[in-house]
Amino acid sequence: MSTDTGHPENLMEKLVSLAKRRGFIFQSSEVYGGVGAVYDYGPLGVELKNNVREAWWTEMVHRREDVEGLDAGILMHPEVWVASGHVEGFTDPLIECRNCHRRFRADHVEGDQCPTCGVSGQFTEPRNFNLMFKTFMGPVEDSTAAVYLRPETAQGIYVNFRNVLDSSRQKVPFGIAQVGKAFRNEITPGNFTFRTREFEQMEMQFFVEPGTDEEWYHTWKERRLEWVKSLGIRADRLRLEPHGPDELAHYAKDAVDIEYLFPMGWREFEGIHNRTDFDLSRHQEHSGKKLEYVESHSGKRFIPYVIETSAGLDRTVLVVLADAYDEEEVEGESRTVLRLHPRLAPTKVAVFPLVKKEGMPEMAARIAADLRGRYTTFHDVSGSIGRRYRRQDEAGTPFCVTVDGQSIADGTVTVRDRDTLEQVRVAADGISDHLRERIEGEAGS
Ligand code: ATP
Q1: Which of 93, 306, 355, 409 could bridge 126 with an S-S bond, Cβ 3.0-4.6 Å?
Q2: Burial code of 38-54, b = ≥16 C-beta within 10 A, e = fewer?
Q3: Hey, which bits of 49-155 come out as E strands?
Q4: For 69-107, b where at least 16 C-beta lie within 10 A, e where not — what string?
């Protein structure tokens, strides 16, 4: 059964359960009853997340001459957040139901009926609630020691603009990219890892000469969408949704969201923004340090405009999982399969002896040991072969190599394809090359 989004029925519940069962994602501090809207990535989840991060970094930093990487601290000078506008304006409208005392983000509630207790007309007036987590630096807990956990990674890039410019050989236009944790004290988190209080962002700020900003904005918008498609995400579940003039953030001249058709509807997972010279100007003003760019050949001075590409890593992982999840009937039996792009799959290959006798376990162990240095490899010796295959289908493993009776006789093994279920026989000593062709061929890299 599928819904009008084309996803299987109750997909989110199924994802939560599969994620726990197979070791992708766990609730934080679960043995203590959990903590609100924070998640931990298990053995398969951390591989998947690393693969998405690595794919982004390769695309945005390694493949480009005009982008440099950065890893800035989570804690920054408190004045950064005054200059950026977060202290004053990074707020959501908070309302409370006077009947059940549950709190909501006003723009997440329709009408005047409480989504929890159902009572109407009992909401308090909205008040602005700042989403930044505050903590204290050093041993004294007073207001002069207050610092924030960063709510976005972008500011770490702006305050390092001069450092990167002066230490690299870059000239405008160029970009700075970073991946890292961000924290927001969300009023209404939810939908699994879609909206959490601790998450990772993958952001790139591209500094351009004013006047060339619109062209760069369009270029990055198209590139980012292409990248998401290259991860194997279905094109008909992706769309670009421009912000109308009344939705634009105070700093933005243009903004577009890349949206995915989640089980709960179309939602953003990446934004591309033309932030003008707002950020560098504000930091120049607040820090008193010149943040303008001087063009070497002409002597022309300007504060660069910034085109930002801002994606949530966790949210992108959720897109990947939701898009990969599939259920089908195979010869009268149902199977659950994660059709992950081979490049993103946590385990690239599983190796099994068909049965535990006649030299099969030893040969399978040898093959697994050989493959391990090259690909994430899972070696599984017990249980029915059908069950072992199904386990790998749920983990999204693209290939299973099985050692059977014929393997002992002629040195060949079978390679089973997760999606087509086709099995081919391949010489065991050529297995690594065979897999390379299929994994890297499909990855297109
Ligand atoms: P929203 O309006 O949904 O609160 P936003 O527009 O404030 O989000 P941005 O500040 O543009 O989001 O953040 C860029 C990206 O960071 C988002 O597209 C999303 O992928 C990710 N992100 C933002 N907030 C969260 C969160 N609470 N949990 C997980 N990812 C998040």
Answers
A1: 93
A2: bbebbebbebbbebbbe
A3: 67-69, 91-96, 103-105, 127-130, 134-136, 146-148
A4: ebebeeebbbebbebbebbeebebbbbbbeeeeeebbbe
Q: Report which of 201, 145, 187 is spatially closest to residue 36, judged by C-alpha positions.
A: 187
Question: Which of 25, 107, 184 to probe ligand 1 with, by most ligand atoms within 8 A of CB?
Answer: 184
**Block means of pLDDT (10 residues each) for the chain, length 445 residues?**
81 97 97 94 98 98 98 97 94 91 89 91 92 91 87 98 96 98 93 97 98 98 98 97 89 94 96 97 97 94 98 98 95 93 97 94 97 95 93 98 96 97 96 92 54
pLDDT of residue 274: 97
Between the CA of 253 and the centroid of ligand 1 the distance, in Å, is 19
Q: How far is the CA of 435 from the centre of ligand 1 (A)?
A: 37
Domains defined along the chain, listed by start: 43-85+136-321 (3.30.930.10), 91-130 (no CATH), 347-443 (3.40.50.800)
Pairing of strands 238-242, 25-27: unpaired
Determine the Cα–Cα distance for residues 98 and 119; give it in Å rounded to an integer. Answer: 9
